[in-house]
Specification:
mainly alpha; 11 helices; about 0% strand; membrane; transmembrane
Amino acid sequence: MALQSPTYWLAEHPSIVNFRWSPTQSWGSTWSFLFTAISAYIAAATTLYTLLILSRRRRPIPLGPVPAVHSLAVALISAVVFVGMLLSAEAEIRETRWFWSRTKTSTPFQWLLCFPLGTRPSGRVFFWSYVFYLSRFLHLLRTFFTILRRRKLTFFTLFNQSILIFMSFIWLEFSQSFQVLAILLTTLIYSVVYGYRFWTAIGLPRARFPFVVNCQAVLLGCNLVCHIGVLFLHLLKGGCNGIGAWGFNSVLNGAILFLFLKFYAKKMHSRNTRVSEDEESTHWGSVNLKEKHT
């Protein structure tokens, strides 16, 4: 029974199995909330940054253990979402395998990339997609940590943070294909990187190579390969659910990849300077990817 408890709480609990994404049942599931939240984030960040500039304060504002606690919280939440999504995907595959064996139209890996047409945002995997969406708001705090430490606030930081929230929303709104595998990959990397950030924040040794930027490169590379797989399956199988949202998502991911490569080439090959890890991206996919080398 003890071994079954994690599976029950992460994949078989009635609240997870019976989850349904809808404006009446899910907090933050309306378009008005999405745009209001993003607008409030941009306004708050730019206002704080402007006030600090006008105050002519040059020294960083002490934050104490807050950034370390934040990194630990994100790492733990990401680990829980990863395990929950993994168990939920396994349960969904197990329960529908009989249908696939009869129709011979899909395999478990194909389902991870390409939802059948008509898929609705309900059930286990969409519950964890919803939790992932909500967790994106916790990531926004890193922007304010950066500002209070007197680091530069860029347009791309605000843009990319907003876009990542927006993409998480449309995954649910349109039951977009590929989101299960995307969340598994992302939360796995998040748990490692934010665990590393917590490790360094409490004064433990840093890696002797650009750890965070390499993890980001791996994540972007995996996303690129998976997007190609979704397109292939969409053309081969006659359609994947939410392909319109996937197309929009692909454009945004392509822009993020371009900015990442551009910044990486500029900073890693044109300059040989030591920079603080606090200046690296406040989110995944950001172009502000500086990392301290030791």
